[in-house]
Amino acid sequence: xxxxxxxxxxxxxxxxxxxxxxxxxxxxxxxxxxxxxxxxxxxxxxxxxxxxxxxxxxxxxxxxxxxxxxxxxxxxxxxxxxxxxxxxxxxxxxxxxxxxxxxxxxxxxxxxxxxxxxxxxxxxxxxxxxxxxxxxxxxxxxxxxxxxxxxxxxxxxxxxxxxxxxxxxxxxxxxxxxxxxxxxxxxxxxxxxxxxxxxxxxxxxxxxxxxxxxxxxxxxxxxxxxxxxxxxxxxxxxxxxxxxxxxxxxxxxxxxxxxxxxxxxxxxxxxxxxxxxxxxxxxxxxxxxxxxxxxxxxxxxxxxxxxxxxxxxxxxxxxxxxxxxxxxxxxxxxxxxxxxxxxxxxxxxxx
Length: 351
Hints:
Blueprint: H1 2-5, E1 15-19, E2 25-28, H2 30-36, H3 40-43, H4 55-66, E3 73-80, E4 86-95, E5 102-108, H5 109-156, H6 160-188, E6 194-196, H7 198-212, E7 217-222, E8 230-232, H8 234-251, H9 253-258, E9 261-275, E10 278-290, H10 318-327, E11 332-338, E12 341-349
Parallel strand pairs: 7-9
Antiparallel strand pairs: 1-2, 1-5, 3-4, 4-5, 6-8, 9-10, 10-12, 11-12
Helix pairs in contact: 5-6, 5-10, 7-8, 8-10
């Protein structure tokens, strides 16, 4: 009965414990189970303060809550996690009305920081979409006029040498038109939703990349075969993953020449995970890991911005479009990079 009473707490992204008057665990939500690496059945009846680096902090807060000296008491403490690592967190302790129980909520500081990063990333992607759409339309109309005028001028010119100049204008106008079309691509085509097998998507992308780099590039597949199919736009997801893997392959140019380049695709199922300010019962986690030089420090915080590239001659659109396509599936792309290891992590909700 008590599990049913507290069932709604499982949908909270914060770590939550309900304690009895003596400080023993009556209920632990899924987020707390994940953090401690223990089931709620194992946690029930255990003194919750024993999981704190400084148990006295929680014990004093529980005394205040029992005596109802404050509506809620906040402090900072460290919880011992799954591998006995310390998890710094904000802690809130409050008495539950009329039941004699005490509610303890913990907000891990790292989770706070990650949610802030996700929020900034979403705002950035939305601003990028508006900027790209407006800029592309502003460029497109005069670009057609420039190309048309160059064609008319070419017809009036008799000397072949002079016509070479108009050919340069036409060629550059076509190149810019292709760039504008790529900028507008995510906004032009409607979502084509169907059943998606993520490993078929991975294999399609790897086949394309290995055709381009038949030698010197080793691919490792680390797949979780239990991942179910989900509803999504297969073409968009292929393009998003292809952009990331191609970026990795381009960054590995020197290692490919040396014959020791490696790209790993790893898939896993996450349970009771929060991203995009939503709690999901199940989510797909897809890693693209390479052993290249890493993302240049100067652009590490801006790699999803349009027209930002760490490679000479790069358009700076691949990761922008990948993030847009993944966000259209309510997902998110994150990146961690250091010399010798770059990890792009794609998160997608699962049914």
